[in-house]
Design goal:
Elements: H1 2-5, H2 11-23, H3 30-42, H4 48-61, H5 67-79, H6 85-98, H7 104-116, H8 122-136, H9 149-162, H10 168-206, H11 220-224, H12 231-244
Helix pairs in contact: 2-4, 3-5, 4-6, 5-6, 5-7, 7-9, 8-10, 9-10, 9-12
Length: 249
């Protein structure tokens, strides 16, 4: 998992980890299992033996997994192309029990995983709809339930592909959350620029130089280009809304 964080891909070490995992799959606890499959997924090391060896034990021990671990496993198996129906059924059923404890990242990973694996789980879709609506309405009072733009992108993409019966209420709430995150990004960028200008002015006064002047206020769309909001995020969100056939003006 540490190598994944540093984006280092030592193939001999990964091969050794894969061999050890296959030989000792039954000894892995839920936390270790989720970390291993997630790290191999992020490092793009696709060893079918590992995922096949761990799947039966995940199904058997899934009741001991927390929301984040369920999400990591679902995301990893889906991204690496393993569509284990029994596994996803167990993961979906377990996540239904844990959905209230899941953070935004876990919600988005589950949406992505089930959509990518093309697994239909109607009860999970309904629960996700309700949870997203709650977090975008009553839940806005609780900072720990806030959803970042990256999570909103994956949720929009996943929900648009998980079912053909789209809940327009959920998409409307999701739209409001996405809009709020974009406005927040623009506002934060303006604040950063004001702080930088203030620092530059102080430095200029110390050196008795001409103080830099504040530039004309840029429109929101120009300021958005300076933020860390990815064009890929926005295009994926637009594609999801196109699939949902929701009419927002």
């Amino acid at each position: 998992n540490s190598y994944h964080k540093f984006r280092i891909r030592p193939l001999p070490l990964l091969a050794a980890v894969a061999d050890y995992t296959v030989a000792n799959a039954k000894r892995f606890c839920p936390h270790s299992t989720s970390l291993v499959v997630s790290a191999l997924c992020q490092l793009d090391y696709n060893d079918s033996r590992v995922f096949a060896a761990l799947a039966p034990f995940i199904c058997r021990e899934v009741r001991y997994y927390d929301a984040q671990e369920v999400a990591m496993v679902a995301h990893a198996y889906a991204k690496m192309g393993y569509r284990e129906e029994v596994l996803f059924e167990r993961l979906g059923s377990m996540f239904l029990r844990l959905i209230g404890e899941a953070d935004g990242k876990a919600l988005s990973m589950v949406c992505y995983g089930f959509a990518r694996a093309d697994v239909r789980h109607s009860a999970l879709v309904k629960a996700l709809n309700d949870e997203i609506i709650f977090r975008g309405t009553v839940g806005v009072r609780y900072p720990n339930l806030a959803l970042k733009l990256e999570s909103l992108r994956l949720i929009a993409w996943g929900m648009s592909k998980m079912t053909k019966e789209h809940d327009q209420r959920m998409y409307f709430v999701l739209y409001n959350m996405i809009k709020a995150r974009v406005y927040e990004a623009v506002s934060n960028q303006r604040l950063r620029e004001r702080v930088e200008l203030s620092k530059a002015r102080r430095q200029a006064r110390k050196k008795r130089l001409k103080e830099p002047q504040e530039e004309d206020r840029l429109p929101a769309d120009a300021m958005l280009a300076k933020t860390d909001v990815s064009p890929n995020d926005l295009s994926a969100i637009l594609a999801a809304y196109a699939r949902s056939k929701m009419n927002i003006h």
